[in-house]
Design a protein that fits this description.
The complex is a heterodimer of chains A (about 625) and B (about 280). Chain A is mainly α and about 625 residues long. Chain A is built from 23 helices and one strand. In chain A, α10 runs antiparallel to α12 (about 245-270), α14 (about 325-360) packs across α20 and α20 packs antiparallel against α21 (about 505-530). Chain A is globular and about 90 Å long. In chain B, α3 runs antiparallel to α4 and α4 (about 65-100) packs antiparallel against α5. The relative contact order of chain B is 0.12. Chain B has about 280 residues and is of the alpha+beta class. In chain B, the strands form two sheets. A five-stranded mixed beta sheet of chain B has the order 4-3-2-6-9. Chain B has a five-stranded mixed beta sheet with strand order 5-11-10-7-8. Chain B is built from six helices and eleven strands. Chain B has two domains: about 20-105 and about 120-155, no CATH class; about 165-275, Cupredoxins -  blue copper proteins (Immunoglobulin-like, Sandwich). The chains are: A mainly alpha (about 625), B alpha+beta (about 280). β1 (about 430) of chain A pairs parallel with β1 (about 105) of chain B, so a sheet runs across the interface. Bound molecules: protoporphyrin IX containing FE (HEM) and copper (II) ion (2 copies). One copper (II) ion (CU) binds next to α14 of chain A.
């Protein structure tokens, strides 16, 4: 494969009978395809359902139009080319596959249906940041409204800001570690040349992009006014724009399934020679656990929305009580996903923290097995706790008992992971680089999130906190304080490998700590408001809560400023940071043992693993002393 | 170990048995960082005491207006205090790791010569036991307290064992209405309740899900279309208390509020009379 290197460097030689269109397809043709598909289907649906050329929005018309958008977009990016070729009996040869992987395409490969996992990783990074930026902007608008006692927005607009902020953030957080780091780093970490199914990898990314547009469009078509949970039957009152949410969730669920299978197969089947399960890095475990949860549970999200869509467009009544439907049914289907999803979000972040702290403490992981047991315990219990979100719904008061028990059980595996974290810190001098500093912040936030989680899992305490701002503050401590901050540590840590440059830690620290302080102010004040009795998702608060809301808003602006500084650090480092060596942190995992920038198939020679990647530190002097006292051979 | 040479027993012959556990604990506790962490731990644990008081004291922005709410406050108070030592410990270790065991900066990968501690069965065992006990305690407390709360809701805490008053709660976008079937079906948009008499709420909705929350009484229940849900309480404080909707129900969810007014016997009767109820 390397014999043609000289020719191709000079002038890309395109394989002869390669489907010509693929060469020109990129994100622009995708958008063109999507828009054409949207318009054509919109007119067709309008004619079909209403007999008019351009009837105003209705559920059915919008649904069909969005399908047109999705198909057009995916066709425009070239997602179906491979399928057609396979159908025609002409599968790709090696040169074509390399071309699809973006060989010699330079920057262009980032705008195409590229299969190289490193390109997909970078694409995911950018897409995730766009999603988080949308969510963050909305958060600022929400907080602005809550901090003043004037009516800044129409209440419906406000509600749609809350809903869209929620969805965008949840999805952004699901992607933020598993997308960029999972795709870019995990295959290298296990010593593979690419993901198991490179084309599925590209598919999963472009499905997210395709789904994102209807979500944003829905903001301008009436919006998602019903929170990210879109409880029925309230949601059915929302105008047709809400179909954008449904479309988004359905497509996103498919994308999640695709990428989960891909990552799982890669992790299970493609680890390097000698990488037994006990030599597999802990981050890989956490990603496997996360996608392992996403795979069975995300379909429930999809069903909940498909049934809701069917209520909207086909006059079914799954969730419409006056026609025999049940509101509890929706809540169950939704939360059977909704709770495991929390672990889908935080597990990779926690795994990344474990992986990173080892490097900056230059100590082995305190107890690899305990960490694995902790992760496994969370996975085992994740599916058994969903109805703790329904303690106050009245669906079955006695069911409070078992769900309270199962929920509180989860604190045991979670605390095992905390033990591994503090055990790894135990007696270690620390190399104070930014990723490590962020981890301290993460553990701190995890303590607060954990404590308040204990309240919420207890039915009597939840009788006060359910549906209040206290809940909102709690899950921000978990999702943002633990998940997002952990992801920031991961991004800074793997930045040199992904971009070839060092992250500007000075500017990054200023940004991070500003955001951290702002975070504490915002959400501590929000705890206070919730505790006093402020319901969540309210658009204006009474006098009683005004002060805590004003404090919270000031804190939120601090977060905003901090995040912008962090983003500036990221962008400027990406463009003009110090060139990174191949292993600037002296890490032992495999992804750092290959050159930077990483060559197309990662490893010139596939590595063979002979030990776990945590061979740091010197023999423990206390242990040596004790062994001498008892006349044992000192353990090395 | 021992300093007093005269009274100490003759030295044991060397063995390869490990030190007795007591001694190992002693040498462990003698290490300087252990003392420091212990001190920080105490401080980090104690900071939760005022927090617990603050949290429980301000739940619902004031004193409890029912025994039921008192039980909720107690739960939050106890849970905070019980988890304080564990949280304090984690906090102490991260603080000490951050500041105490030493640090280096710089671009070069440093050679920190940190001890390669790989596992410590004793620590893992102790931790697991402690955490399991804590979880066990929380679960047990939760089960017991939930039962107590359910009994309160059923009126067990009313001194004179009165028959509960039935109130029908109806939520609709965006207002509450209450009707009193035993009082001839009179209805009101403010919730009037008699003092120290148990109340049973039968709640339903005309449109979407709402949540009926009498904040200082600890009553919270979803109000669903197509179903009747139950809640109950015995108000034991006179006065007027906020009722808020705690489930997003559309445009004016924020303003779906009213008051619960607890009246003593005389006021209750005169309110009934003003509503045209003759008893
Ligand atoms: C700049 C930082 C952020 C601020 C100031 C902020 C603020 C808010 C506020 C005020 C709400 C409305 C709460 C309510 O009325 O219930 C909210 C909701 C929410 N936020 Fe954030 N947020 C931030 C970042 C995040 C992040 C990083 C996540 C990540 C997962 C997130 C996830 C959510 C979710 C899931 C909701 C619930 C939406 C709903 O009620 O349906 N937020 N946020
Ligand atoms: Cu949950
Ligand atoms: Cu409401």
């Amino acid at each position: 494969m390397t014999t043609t290197a000289t020719e191709t460097a000079a002038m890309p030689v395109y394989p002869k009978n390669f489907l010509r269109s693929l060469r020109r397809q990129n994100v622009f043709t995708a958008f063109a395809g999507g828009i054409v598909g949207f318009l054509v289907m919109r007119v067709a649906a309008s004619l079909f359902f209403r007999g008019e050329f351009w009837h105003g929005d209705s559920n059915r018309i919008i649904t069909v139009a969005f399908i047109g958008w999705g198909v057009g977009f995916m066709a425009g990016i070239g997602a179906f080319n491979g399928v057609f070729r396979w159908f025609a009996g002409k599968d790709l040869d090696h040169a074509e596959a390399e071309y699809m992987a973006g060989k010699d395409l330079g920057v262009k490969r980032y705008f195409r249906y590229t299969t190289d996992h490193k390109v997909v990783g970078i694409q995911y990074l950018v897409v995730t940041m766009v999603i988080l930026a949308i969510g963050g902007t909305l958060a600022m608008l929400i907080r602005t409204q809550l901090g003043i006692s004037m009516e800044l927005f129409n209440p419906n607009t406000y509600n749609s800001f809350v809903g869209t902020h929620g969805v965008a953030m949840v999805v952004g957080m699901i992607l933020v570690v598993t997308g960029p780091i999972g795709n870019f780093i995990v295959p290298m970490m296990v010593g593979a040349r690419d993901m198991a199914f490179p084309r599925l990898n590209a598919l999963s990314l472009w499905l997210v992009v395709a789904a994102l547009i209807p979500l944003v469009m829905s903001l301008f078509m009436g919006g998602i006014r019903d929170g990210w949970t879109v409880y029925q039957p309230l949601a059915i009152q929302a105008p047709p724009g809400a179909v954008g949410y449904i479309f988004f969730i359905v497509i996103f669920s498919i994308s999640t399934a695709v990428s989960s299978v891909n990552l799982l197969v890669t992790i299970v089947r493609m680890r390097a020679r000698g990488m037994t399960w006990s030599r597999t890095p802990i981050f890989v475990y956490s990603v496997a656990a996360s996608v392992g949860l996403a795979l069975p549970f995300f379909p429930f999200y999809m069903y909940s929305q498909l049934l809701a869509l069917s209520d909207r467009t086909l006059s079914t009544s799954f969730f419409i009580p006056e026609r025999g439907g049940s509101v509890w049914l929706y809540e169950h289907i939704f939360w059977i996903l909704g709770h495991p999803e929390v672990y889908v979000i935080i597990l990779p972040g926690i795994g990344a923290c474990l992986e990173i702290m080892v490097v900056f403490l230059r100590k082995p992981l305190f107890s690899f097995r305990t960490a694995v047991v902790g992760i496994a315990g969370i996975v085992a219990l994740a599916g058994l706790v969903w109805a703790h979100h329904m303690f106050m719904t009245g669906w079955a008061p006695l069911a409070g008992y078992p769900f309270m028990i199962s929920t509180e059980m989860i604190s045991i595996p979670l605390s095992l992971i905390v033990l591994v974290m503090i055990g790894t810190m135990w007696r270690g001098k620390v190399w104070t680089r930014l990723p490590m500093m962020i981890i301290y912040a993460v553990v701190f936030n995890k303590i607060i999130g954990g404590l308040t989680g204990i309240f919420l899992s207890d039915v009597p305490a939840d009788m006060h906190f359910h549906g209040s701002m206290f809940v909102t503050a709690h899950f921000h401590y978990m999702l943002m304080g633990t998940g997002l901050f952990g992801a920031m540590a991961a991004i800074v840590f793997w930045f040199p490998k992904m971009t070839g440059r060092m992250f500007d830690e000075r500017l990054g620290s200023i940004g991070f700590w500003t955001a951290f302080v702002g975070f504490q102010i915002t959400f501590m004040a929000m705890f206070a408001a919730g505790n006093l009795g402020m319901p969540r998702r309210v658009f204006q608060s009474s006098e009683l809560f005004l002060l805590s809301n004003q404090i919270s808003t000031v804190g939120a602006y601090m977060i905003g400023v901090g995040m912008l500084i962090f983003l500036a650090a990221l962008i400027s480092s990406w463009k003009s940071g110090v060139i990174a060596s191949s292993n600037p942190w002296g890490s032992q995992t495999l992804e750092w043992q290959t050159p930077t920038p990483v060559p197309l198939e990662n490893f010139p020679v596939l590595p063979v693993v002979t030990s776990d990647p945590y061979q740091y530190g010197v023999p423990d002097p206390y242990q040596v002393e004790r062994d001498l006292e008892t006349q044992k051979e000192p353990v090395a | 170990m021992s300093q007093d040479l005269d009274t100490s027993p003759p030295p044991e012959p060397p063995t390869n048995r490990p030190l007795p556990p007591g001694d190992r604990l002693g040498t462990f506790l003698a290490r300087p960082y252990v003392k420091h962490i212990a001190a920080i731990w105490v401080v980090c644990t104690l900071i939760w005491v005022p927090i617990a008081y603050w949290l429980a004291g301000n739940m619902g922005a004031g004193p409890a207006a029912s025994k039921l709410m008192g039980a909720l406050k107690e739960t939050v108070f106890v849970f905070t205090l019980v988890s304080a030592p564990l949280m304090g410990f984690v906090l102490a270790v991260i603080l000490y790791s951050w500041l105490g065991w030493g640090r280096v900066s710089g671009d070069e990968v440093p050679d920190l010569k940190n001890p390669a501690i790989k596992g410590n069965p004793i620590a893992v065992t102790i931790w697991t036991i402690v955490v399991s006990f804590l979880a066990f305690f929380l679960v047990t407390w939760g089960i017991v307290e939930y039962t107590v709360v359910n009994n309160y809701a059923a009126g067990s805490d009313n001194p004179e064992k009165l028959q509960p008053l039935e109130v029908h709660v109806t939520g609709q976008q965006w207002l509450w209405s209450f009707s009193y079937p035993e009082q001839g079906g009179i209805s009101s948009e403010t919730l009037f309740l008699p003092h120290n008499r148990p109340v049973v709420f039968k709640a339903t909705s005309k449109d979407v899900i709402h949540n009926f929350w009498i904040v200082p009484m600890g009553v919270k229940i979803d109000v669903n279309p197509g179903a009747v849900t139950l809640a109950g309480v015995t108000p034991d404080t006179l006065g007027s208390f906020p009722i808020r909707c705690a489930e997003l129900c559309g445009m004016h969810h924020a303003f779906m509020q009213t008051q619960a007014v607890v009246l003593d016997k005389a006021d209750w009767n005169s309110w009934l009379a003003s509503m045209g109820v003759t008893s």
